[in-house]
Amino acid sequence: AQQPAGEPAPEQALGVFRALRAPGRTASAGAAGRPSEAAGSARGAVLQARVRQLQAESVSEVVVNRVDVARLPEHGSGDGGPQPPRKVQRGAKGASPVPRSGWAQRLEKDKRIQRMHGQQLEVNLQMQVQSQSEELKVWPKHLQVEPRLLSKQLAVFLAPESSWEEQLPRVLQEAPRKLRIAVGRAPSTQAQLSGQQQKLLAFFKCCLLTDHLLLAHHLLVTHHSQQQKQKLLTLDMYNTVMLGWARQGAFRELVYVLLMVKDAGLTPDLLSYAAILQCMGRRGQDAGTIERCLKQMSQEGLKPQALFTAVPLSEEEQAAVLKAVHKVKPPFSLPPRPPPAVNTSKLLRAVYAKDGPVSYPKLHLPLKTLQSLFEKQLCVELASKVCVVSVEKPALPSEEVTHARKTLQTLRDHWEKALCRVLQETKNHLEVEVHKGRFSLYPFLCLLDEREVVQMLLQVLQALPAQGESFTTLARELSARTFSRHVVQRQRLSGQVQALETYYRKYLHLLASDTKPLPLYPWADRAPPGEQLSDRPVPQPWPLPVQMELGKQLAEMLVQATRMPSSLDNRHGSSRLVPVLYHVYSFRNVQQIGILKPHPAYVKLLETAAEPTLTFEAVDVPMLCPPLPWTSPHTGGFLLSPTKLMRTVEGATQHQELLETCPPTALHGALDALTQLGNCAWRVNGRVLDLVLQLFQAKGCPKLGVPAPASEAPQPAEAHLPQSAAPARKAELRRELARCQKVAREMHSLRAEALYRLSLAQHLRGRVFWLPHNMDFRGRTYPCPPHFNHLGSDVARALLEFAQGRPLGPHGLDWLKIHLVNLTGFKKREPLRKRLAFAEEVMDDILDSADQPMTGRKWWMGAEEPWQTLACCMEVANAVRCSDPAAYVSHLPVHQDGSCNGLQHYAALGRDSVGAASVNLEPSDVPQDVYSGVAAQVEVFRRQDAQRGTRVAQMLEGFITRKVVKQTVMTVVYGVTRYGGRLQIEKRLRELTDFPQEFVWEASHYLVRQVFKSLQEMFSGTRAIQHWLTESARLISHMGSVVEWVTPLGIPIIQPYRLEHKVKQVRGGIQSITYTHNGDISQKPNTRKQKNGFPPNFIHSLDSSHMMLTALHCYRKGLTFVSVHDCYWTHAADVAVMNQVCREQFVRLHSEPILEDLSRFLVSRFCPNPTPRKISQCWEASQLKETLQAVPKPGAFDLERVKHSTYFFS
Q1: How far apart (Å, rounded) are the C-alpha atoms in residues 314 and 1117?
Q2: N or C end of the chain: smaller count of CB under 10 Å?
Q3: Alpha-carbon distance 687 to 892, whole Å?
Q4: Is residue 618 one of the residues assigned to a domain?
Q5: What is the Cα–Cα distance from 807 to 813, expressed in whole angstroms?
Q6: What are the residue boundaries of the DNA-directed RNA polymerase N-terminal domain, all occurrences included (predicted)?
Q7: Interatomic CA distance for residues 171 and 750, integer angstroms
């Protein structure tokens, strides 16, 4: 039988694996010549899986029933270790009979069809292999260069009587061909292109990067020659190919492309003329031709100066264009670089004021150390990966472990060769596709060296979890890794690394502790002309269709090439090659998704080998040097790896386009705030890490947030039932088994997350590191490394402390003690003096926790945040035992939290006196608790209803507590509906064991109405503003637009919620990929998401503005500052200063006419002028304008009182 292309015959493959067997063992003779059954049994396996799913009823995953099991060589164990539980099968001892169903009958029929068509499949496969091999031989390397033009008037230029140089001005003067049907093929943005157009444009651009220009030209010509395909071509596509020929000085080919532009009915633009002039500059063209070209350009209203300001050209390309222009206009010079514009925002005026001795804040490290750290980080990013020693308890050295590691290495060596072969065959096939005039991924697979692609695929295979990964997710991940490596490689090859070194060393002079202080003003204006990294061409992310198709191709190559013997120990049977990865379907949220799972034998092999290292992408690990300062929407963060300024939903491009088009100075505040947050130096708290590792390497401690290993997962009480068991008992066992499997999956996920975090912490122990930041579409900031940062859990935060310490000073120790009590959660509603007194009362417990955390009284374990409490206990113990506590250098971050921050912003916007008092905007002697206030108001309503005889109100007597209403009150400001609020309250009521459960549904309905009624009375201004925002968004989306606004700091915001457009982009192969594409601006807005999302998103944009203002002013004062949204961190000695800045900036922010400015912006942006002609549209437009202008009237609360509120942030 013939083998699939790219796969070795079993006899050949068997020889590769001889070394994998234990000495003295041989393979069975009959197995070697057996043909592969994998291709023919795929459908049958899925049907078998479906039968078992229907039998199991409650089991959520469809698993392939019959998987070829590869067993490990046994060393002392007879059963190969624990096996996953099996379901009871028909015919097995003790199994209950299964009635025949339609699915079972269909399965048997399918098996008969498989047997009948077995020989035919082999014949088809043989023909396919022969066809592919002949195809590669037959197809010549001849590519089409001369186009076929549809215009006879233009076709005469293809056989010129004069030189191509003389032809060019005549071609430019020719009017574009008039099209019979007007086709809109000049989209202004990436989002307006169809999926096919996005793929074509990306193909042409990629060909320029991989030196496949002739291939790009060929595809352009073949598409242009076919009228239907020509409609897909845009001017950008023609210009891209034209620019490629211009770089090579190929005049004839450039004129060919220009003829196609005219033939397509398009008019050359600035980029077209830039390519033409560049080509003539490189060839040293005579002045006459250049002069006629410039004259034609002028007649079309295009100015030469715009070639250097509005067209993205490299320095070399600009020089070639300038050389051509100088031949005609020797005095011509490049337009002068405009002077740095000044940010005129009133909110930022004080930040960048130059009146006073304010210098750029320094780090605690000297210049030489920072330069050395920069070189280390550069090496990390050039390698694109980081190897980290795992903190899992190391396996004891044994013959079994040694043999498993040797086996694994041998397998990987073979997989590497197989992947190289499959990659080369795939590229050959895809190149033929382009020869046929069809789009393919060929140039994208040529971006990286083949060995680098193979290593990347093997790295992904090693990290694949035992429960598998969504095929779509894996495809997306592979594509992202390919793009990231390509960007790094391109910078290395183009010499940009050297420019980066020069630029970054100047930046380090600002930060180093031993350099001259420099004044503080935006870094974006600091670098001299020509040295701004933001001036250089930036690789644009590939369109979503290309990402998904490329990722799918790479994933399928990985599946195709990675195989292993079905038995590594011939005692267990044959040694056929079986796939390492297999494809199953799982049902999640009523949707069927494809999953790639590693073979159980491969998973077992990995577990036995217990390899001591983990491999991370460079962008997933904190940086070893300060991040690159943010100077533009595409420059900042990591040194070489691409970093997005704004996180967006998949496929959305409007956010980036808004950032690119807004005035650069409008982003100064946000860019500098992100730079400042990233400049905070961190270190690992070694004592806390040792304790966490102690628990992690034992059996974990879920109560303390340390996940338990898989061995601690719950098991069903009975694994098997006798045949005579009742059906109800069998159903109960199936449900119990499903619950156990769910818990096991959750435990595995939590354990893997903790393993990554703790391994990175151990890797960074004793080092200084940094966390680059970016923001989401609302302006909220986040650290880029995902596994180890201060936005994580209690454990993650306890492991981090400031690398730069600060003496406690006269009040720092008090703030440490207050912070400790805050972390425990014991005295939330007590004033600060009582919290401080409580800290003194429990000082013995604090010291005992610090000295004997695991063997003492363990007081810290009862806190809300136990690990952070323990870290603070240790810091307090060190300080109080110091001879001079004020001189003790503290590294522990101290937190100050906003009091229901969303309601604080609403109360300030509406000047709501009652609401302001409830959320601590009003000064008071004790902290106000809004949740208790709402609970008390609900209790008043309940009593009134109970007196009227309402039964549910009488049943709720004594059950209305702060905890019952807290979640609903907290989330109502972020748009929770009554339905969602009812579910929250229902959950709390079910936790009350003494509440009659039969009244839960009725009671939750009653309580959610009372909570909303209480909030309406307590926060009348808040509800009015929320209603105005919701109604405005509803009307805007009804008019066909998505909601946009600009934050007080100048960040442009757009809500990305559109009706989901599901595109079945990639068909065939293992599975078709269907994904949701939100970036298509032709899709209508999702009205429900637009109106529900506007109030919370607008408030989030305000709290991010407040945080950024606080960050910038703290930076100006020399403070270390970081934040977790509305929780601000600094040194204990600087808490009082940070509190003052925080309050001042909140007052300054809300002193601006925020709602009035928003109203004016929305009217100018969304109210059409002139008025629409249709009556219905005219009515909607007038209603929208009327609503937008009806800004809620503010109350009488005096914002200045916030400055004196102790518990505003506390």
Answers
A1: 40
A2: N
A3: 13
A4: no
A5: 10
A6: 375-679
A7: 66
For residue 501, the number of C-alpha atoms closer than 13 Å in the C-beta half-sphere is 14
Are residue 319 and residue 401 in the same domain, yes or no?
no
Which position has the higher pLDDT, 553 or 745?
553
Averaged pLDDT, 1050-1054: 93
Specify the amino acid at residue 511.
L
State whether 592 and 488 are in the same domain: yes
To which H or E segment does residue 467 belong?
none
In a domain, 94, yes or no: no
Domain count for the chain = 3
Lowest mean pLDDT among 263-267, 298-302, 968-972: 968-972
Beta bridge partner(s), residue 807:
889
Residue 401 pLDDT exceeds 80: yes
Dist. CA 243–CA 271, nearest whole Å: 8
Q: Are residues 169 and 317 in the same domain?
A: yes
Tell me the pLDDT tens digit for each residue of 1154-1192.
999 999 999 999 987 766 666 667 778 888 999 999 999
Q: pLDDT tens across 41-85, in order?
A: 444 544 554 444 444 433 344 444 344 444 444 444 434 333 333
Write the CB contacts of 138 (distance below 8 Å, at least 6 apart in sequence).
Answer: none
Characterize 663-673 residue by residue with b for buried, 16 or more Cβ atoms within 10 angstroms of its Cβ, and e for exposed.
ebbbbbbbbbb
Residue 229 CA: distances (Å) to CA of 197, 226, 232: 10, 5, 6
Q: Which CATH number fits the domain that encloses residue 282?
A: 1.25.40
| Residues facing 567 on adjacent strands | 71
Query: Which of these, 1096, 852, 825, lies nearest to 977 by C-alpha position?
Result: 1096
pLDDT of residue 524: 53
Q: Catalytic site residues?
A: 897, 966, 1126
| Pairing state between β 628-632 and 613-617 | unpaired
Sign of CA dihedral 79, 80, 83, 89: negative
From the CB of residue 1038, how many other CB atoms can be counted at a distance below 10 Å?
A: 16
1006 and 927 within one domain: yes
Last-in-domain residue among 1018, 1033, 1060: 1018
Range of the domain at 973: 913-1018
Q: Render 976-1012 in DSSP notation, one character per residue.
A: --HHHHHHHHHHHHHT-TTS-GGGHHHHHHHHHHHHH
Answer whether 311's CB lies under 8 Å from 271's CB: yes
> What does the alpha-carbon distance between residue 1210 and residue 1208 come to, in Å, rounded to a whole number?
6
**pLDDT at res. 139:** 47
Run of H or E residues at 123: helix 102-138
- With a cut of 50, say whether residue 32 has pLDDT above it: no
**Per-residue pLDDT averaged across 454-475, rounded?**
92
CA distance 781 to 1052: 15
Q: Distances from the Cα of 1114 to the Cαs of 250, 521, 819, 1109, in angstroms?
A: 57, 14, 20, 8
Q: List C-alpha distances in Å: 237 to 233, 474, 1168.
A: 6, 30, 34
Last residue within a domain, chosen from 308, 328, 348: 328
pLDDT band (50, 70, 90) for residue 519: low
Find the CATH number of the domain harbouring 938: 1.10.150.20
Q: How far apart are CA 232 and CA 228, in angstroms?
A: 8
Could you tell me if 423 and 526 lie in one domain? yes
Give the model confidence (pLDDT) of 605-629 as tens digits.
998 998 899 999 999 999 999 999 9
Does residue 594 form part of some domain? yes
Lowest pLDDT segment from 206-215, 696-705, 711-720, 800-809: 711-720
* Model confidence band, residue 510 (pLDDT cutoffs 50, 70, 90): confident
Higher pLDDT, 130 or 709: 709
Helices (H), 647-726: 654-661, 668-678, 686-696
* Of 549, 541, 428, residue with least CA distance to 486: 541
What's the pLDDT score for residue 872? 97
Residue 819 lies inside a defined structural domain of this protein: no
